[in-house]
Write a structure and sequence with these properties.
single chain; mainly alpha; Arc Repressor Mutant, subunit A; two-stranded antiparallel sheet; 2 strands; 8% strand
């Protein structure tokens, strides 16, 4: 699942789907048009990418005329996956600097530092 890159338009489409729960490409296109004019084909392309990334699913409606799109991941689940991917990538490439940054900037107490250390060790073991 390539979720490290979620573009601004993909995010708008996802927000519409999270609000509506299910929608057709035309529903999403109409919603996006309220803000700015987008080509219908652009919306279809974005939906295809999100399906390929396994963030949303598509199934044919009962009349087999159009796809119905549904989120697979909640907003929170997607955000967590993106953060995990980013942190893992940073740890792989710049382990010491990443850990140092996290400890120095994201902790306010010794207890927080220990939580971060434990979480990083868990992540390493699960790779």
């Amino acid at each position: 699942m390539d979720i490290k890159n979620i573009g601004p338009l993909e995010e708008k489409v996802l927000n519409i789907l999270w609000n509506k729960k299910t929608a057709t490409a035309r529903d999403i296109w109409r919603e996006l048009k309220k803000e700015r004019e987008y080509a219908y084909s652009t919306v279809r392309t974005i939906l295809t990418r999100l399906v390929e990334k396994k963030i949303i699913s598509q199934k044919m409606d009962k009349n087999k005329r159009m796809y119905i799109y549904t989120p697979i991941l909640t907003k929170n689940e997607l955000e967590r996956k993106i953060v995990k991917t980013a942190i893992n990538s940073l740890l792989e490439r710049f382990e010491k600097s990443t850990i140092s940054y996290l400890v120095e900037n994201l902790s306010e107490s010794d207890e927080d530092v220990e939580k971060i250390k434990r979480k990083l060790e868990e992540m390493r073991k699960n790779e």
